[in-house]
Amino acid sequence: MITAVDTNILLDVFGADARFGPRSAEAIRACLRDGSLLASDVVWAETAAVFGDPRRFEHAMSTLPVAFSAVTQAAALRAAVAWRRYRASGGPRLRIAADFLIGAHALTVADCLLTRDRGFYRRYFTGLRVIDPTSRN
Questions:
Q1: How many degrees, rounded to 5, is the angle at CA 130 between CA 74 and CA 77?
Q2: Which CATH superfamily is 2-131 part of?
């Protein structure tokens, strides 16, 4: 099974978040027992930005077997359709295109998405299996 991982999960673990870190780390271990983990280029960039120093980020990522996976053209087009639907239904700009790229990427190249943002992804990416470490799914 291939699991795409969202930025919030990586930041929970790398930032040692007291509330979500342990559950996110366990969810990563569970996903690795079932298969492999990958992160889209969007997740990669969002996570790296928090580190500031690219070498620190690369070192942190090397501690997890997370593969880099670029958003495909098909995923970008799916993201555009979902973004347009969101905005047409009155969705505020609180959600940015990056969120839609992450969801579309997971839908097109992975079996599921590991994230704490389950409601958004379930609503705009029907058929995407979402794993939320903070719930029983």
A1: 15
A2: 5'-nuclease (3.40.50.1010)
The answer on pLDDT for 18 being more than 50 is yes
Q: Are 95 and 87 in contact (CB under 8 A)?
A: no
Q: Considering only CA atoms, which of 48, 1, 20 is closest in space to residue 115?
A: 20
**What pTM was estimated for this model as a whole?**
0.90
- pLDDT digits over 87-99, tens only? 888 876 666 789 9
Please answer whether residues 73 and 104 qualify as being in contact, where contact means their C-beta atoms are separated by less than 8 angstroms: no
- The β-bridge relationship of strands 66-69 and 112-114 is unpaired
> In the chain, what are the domain boundaries?
2-131
